Amino acid sequence: MSKKRIVILGAGYGGLRTLKKLQKIRPDAELMLIDKNDYHCETTALHEVAAGTSNADEICYSLDLVVDRSQTSFIQDVVVCVEPEKRRVLLKNHAPVSYDYLLISLGFEPELFGIQGMEHYGLFISDIPSVTKIRAHIEEQFEKWTEDHRLEHLVIVVGGAGFTSFEFLGELTNRMPALIERYHIDKNLVRIICIEPTPNALPMFHRRLAEYGAGRLSSRGVAFVIGRVASVDEGRIDYRTDDQIQSIQAGTFVWTGGVSGSSVVAASGFNQRRGRVTVNRDLSVQGHSEILIIGDCSAVINPQSGRPYPTTAQIALQQADCAAYNLNAMLHGNPTKPFVYNYKGTVCSLGKNDAVGEVMGRKLKGRPASIMKKVIENRALAKIGGVETMIKKGRFSLIK
Ligand code: FAD
């Protein structure tokens, strides 16, 4: 009898950690990993590449460091959709792949909310190509300023004042002095503007911490504007405040106002909302117990609030441990276990030596928060890439 096949879609936090755990369990099954890239990206550091304070290779590592070829085959391709009834996955450039058990962990995509012009003129912090584009775009705009001295080239607008926005703004304000020097710009001409519909920036944090974060960014020149982005055009952002439409002329517009799960989830016909499937307690899909969904494509309901937990790398990593256990249990016809989330806290970087967050119930800000952020990032690196990868790629400097 041929071995059963477990297929994992996505080599991000959820998918790669599940594979690592499964390879340790060594189930009597064929393991297969599919991802569009042959590297793992530390998505939580994408904002650094966008701002230009890190290079892409500093936040990525080869899948070869994790994939054990004696147990696992890897296909580099784009997943188009899953056909649950036929138990197969359709790929862009390869023949369909059949599975006995499937794990979907395809991450997130920017949520555009149907805002006019966003798809064309917005820039997004979602993967390596998108953040490389942001870095190049900002530099191109500053270069253009040296040619025509039009001020909009020096205006950068960020839509959204949540976690990703603040992390990006923190790095961007750190990068600015080098850019200003390189292009010989008067620093007073550069404008960095953050637009958010409500006065509640960083809504996941206690107000005192959120105010600290906003205060730190303001002190580095970020202007906060209350308004809802209505449309985006080349060099122009329209936003609504009190029933009035206002405009900002800006060469760069970065949208951080929302994310949804992968569009593959909707294309596969699952019962989903914004690319996320509300999964069963054991992370399986209703009506398809052979399919597990984790990470940003899944919604896990917090029993206390009745609402889904925010999608984070933290929850994806914990789900992965449960998913590996359950996939192995299913393979042997054993009972699966429910996923229980253990929230440990969140730290939002504000750039070099600065951060704000709550860890194990303790509120942190400034350098202690920044050190804690590095500890968290290194831990995630070790959990997936292993200790060697953490030593090579980890963040040990106390001044970056
Ligand atoms: P991902 O880790 O995003 O992996 C998805 C994988 O699927 C990728 O390897 C991708 O290449 C692959 N893929 C996607 N589509 C396809 C396709 N069609 N075909 C083939 N392959 C595909 N969370 C925290 O807990 N703490 C933080 O501090 C934090 N900071 C963040 C900072 C930023 C700037 C951003 C953007 C996010 C941050 N997050 C943070 C959220 C966190 O990154 C995500 O929740 C996490 O990446 C989700 O893990 P995942 O496994 O679902 O997907």
Automatic annotation (TrEMBL):
The entry's keywords: FAD, Flavoprotein, Oxidoreductase
InterPro entries linked: FAD/NAD-bd_sf (IPR036188), FAD/NAD-binding_dom (IPR023753), NADH-Q_oxidoreductase (IPR051169)
Superkingdom of the organism of origin: Bacteria
Residue ranges occupied by any FAD/NAD(P)-binding domain in the UniProt entry: 5-320
Cofactor(s) for this UniProt protein: FAD
Pfam families: Pyr_redox_2 (PF07992)
Protein's UniProt keywords contain ATP-binding: no
Keyword Thylakoid carried by entry: no
PANTHER family hit by this protein: 64 KDA MITOCHONDRIAL NADH DEHYDROGENASE (EUROFUNG), APOPTOSIS-INDUCING FACTOR 1
Family statement: Belongs to the NADH dehydrogenase family.
Protein name: NAD(P)/FAD-dependent oxidoreductase
